[in-house]
């Protein structure tokens, strides 16, 4: 096991947090993706990371961030805070293309993602488990994004063939704008919830 930053003889780190299984976040924190704690989660880390991650593993015609996807979803959902944060785990775990994620070999990833989302829900006082309607807005977003951001498909995307996309088209934002819009939307929703 790797040494932590403290003296070996006086290390007081819990064993699960005294090794190299952590990442450094945008705000400079240590974060353990496989042992997340609500107090370690910072909305600034989420906004920054998601604004720099491209949807569809980068196969869009233009850069289009997970942050923008989340902001748009939050304007079309009955629980906008859940919609804004529904992909927040990707800030710490990244994402895996849907065909891989669904395969039996990736069950450990799915478990880590579920645990991460549970901790994110705890941190932002969201009901757990994730509401079922989040899957529906995600499908609507997928249909909209395919229409506006992807080349013509070689064959139908069966999961969304009967899903109606949003009427308004998507104009991709820069990462800096996506980060700003994500944080601004979070503040709007947080203020509204506290009122």
Could you explain the architecture of this structure?
This protein has 195 residues and is mainly α. The chain is built from eight helices and two strands, in the order ββαααααααα. Strands 1-2 form a two-stranded antiparallel ribbon. A hairpin with a 5-residue loop joins β1 (23-24) and β2. α1 (43-51) packs antiparallel against α8 and α2 packs parallel to α8 (175-194). It is globular. The model has no long low-confidence stretch (mean pLDDT 92).
Total helical elements = 8
The major β-sheet equals:
2 strands, antiparallel
- Give the mean pLDDT: 92
Give the tally of β-strands.
Answer: 2
| Protein structure class | mainly alpha
What percent of residues adopt helix (DSSP H or I)? 40-55%
Distance between the termini: 48 Å
Strand order of the largest sheet: 1-2
The quaternary organization reads as single chain
The share of residues in extended strands comes to under 5%
Rounded radius of gyration (Å): 18 Å
The outline comes out as globular
Low-pLDDT segments, ≥5 res: none
Order of helices and strands: EEHHHHHHHH
């Amino acid at each position: 096991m790797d040494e932590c930053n403290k003296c070996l003889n006086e290390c007081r780190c819990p064993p699960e947090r005294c090794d190299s299984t952590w990442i450094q976040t945008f705000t400079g924190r240590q974060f353990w993706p496989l042992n997340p704690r609500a107090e370690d989660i910072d909305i600034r880390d989420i906004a920054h990371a998601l604004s720099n991650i491209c949807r569809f593993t980068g196969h869009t015609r233009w850069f289009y961030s997970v942050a923008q996807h989340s902001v748009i979803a939050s304007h079309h959902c009955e629980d906008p805070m859940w919609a804004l944060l529904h992909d927040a785990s990707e800030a710490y775990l990244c994402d895996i293309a849907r065909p891989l994620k669904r395969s039996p070999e990736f069950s450990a990833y799915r478990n880590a993602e579920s645990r991460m989302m549970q901790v994110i829900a705890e941190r932002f006082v969201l009901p757990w488990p994730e509401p079922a309607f989040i899957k529906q807005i995600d499908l609507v977003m997928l249909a909209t994004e395919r229409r506006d951001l992807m080349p013509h498909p070689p064959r139908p995307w069966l999961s969304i063939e009967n899903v109606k996309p949003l009427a308004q088209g998507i104009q991709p934002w820069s990462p800096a704008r996506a980060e700003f819009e994500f944080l601004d939307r979070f503040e709007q929703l947080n203020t509204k919830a506290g009122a």
